[in-house]
Amino acid sequence: xxxxxxxxxxxxxxxxxxxxxxxxxxxxxxxxxxxxxxxxxxxxxxxxxxxxxxxxxxxxxxxxxxxxxxxxxxxxxxxxxxxxxxxxxxxxxxxxxxxxxxxxxxxxxxxxxxxxxxxxxxxxxxxxxxxxxxxxxxxxxxxxxxxxxxxxxxxxxxxxxxxxxxxxxxxxxxxxxxxxxxxxxxxxxxxxxxxxxxxxxxxxxxxxxxxxxxxxxxxxxxxxxxxxxxxxxxxxxxxxxxxxxxx
Length: 247
Known about the structure:
This protein is α/β, with parallel strands linked by helices.
């Protein structure tokens, strides 16, 4: 793996360039991966080898850093956050204007990848926790259909302002959604509710649960890797899941 920071003028944190890792020379696919609350772009950097991607698949992973801002539910403490949680009332406690701001910043990163020669169909978004909230919202609002979304331990607030200009039903990109069955922060039922809503908007969604709390496990990472390989290697094979599975 080669870490690079070539040509990036990051829209997220102007003082901290994204972590950029290429799994091989001349990557022809990209994954933009958003971290969770209080973490940074290095948080998911170590998972790349655990994905088990084929050696011949050359992917650029982009791990941006969220801006530092006060977070109300944490006593106003400043930390890296894609948006403020004013309360833990899912669907009403999020600072929607900041989610929208973050989706615009993600769109800029998509455009950077497209300008570097990666077609939208080979650009995927991924996100954990509130990073997954932003990844889902950005993918559903992006005017072109990107390759897919990996949504981990997260949900999508159904706020009218956030849902404005979403893609039409059946036109959303493929989604791999995963959640810990023991998650104490974002209960698995919240993730299931989002999966059911997404099922109406994309013909390709997988929803899987794992025996973890608010985090990821090796089995989950291997499943993510297989899904990414299918999306990047054979688009027809990638669309095999057309319904939500609950396990």
